[in-house]
Amino acid sequence: MRTFKGVVANAWSAVVFGVLFTTAAMAQSGGFHNDTQGCAADRPCFNGYRQSGNKVIFNFTGVTGWDFYNVRYAKAGGGENQVENRSGQFTLNNVQPRRIYTLKVQGCRSHTLGRSTCSPWTEQSVTTR
Fold it and tell me: What is the pLDDT of residues 9-25, one digit of tens each?
């Protein structure tokens, strides 16, 4: 019995190590298409942001192509604005220092004779400097 438990424990350790090693190797080799954040395949993925003066520029993509993105952000005085975006990049202007800004994005596919179908929303928050 003791030997059997040791074999099972060693086999389990090897499986766990193999999964972790394979996941890390895939992320490094592009197996996740350079997605090191592990984003869901059914929605856009934020892949960076930068602050330039009083602007914050968000970048996002999807694993599959979207016809357009819906973007939501907080507006001054409360509530949210929603705009259509086709570039995969969105800039918030006139940001204030040391504030949290959140951008929400969903990817959509257009249909000629019907409503667009859109992914679930995903969001990214940034604290300005």
Answer: 444 444 333 433 334 44
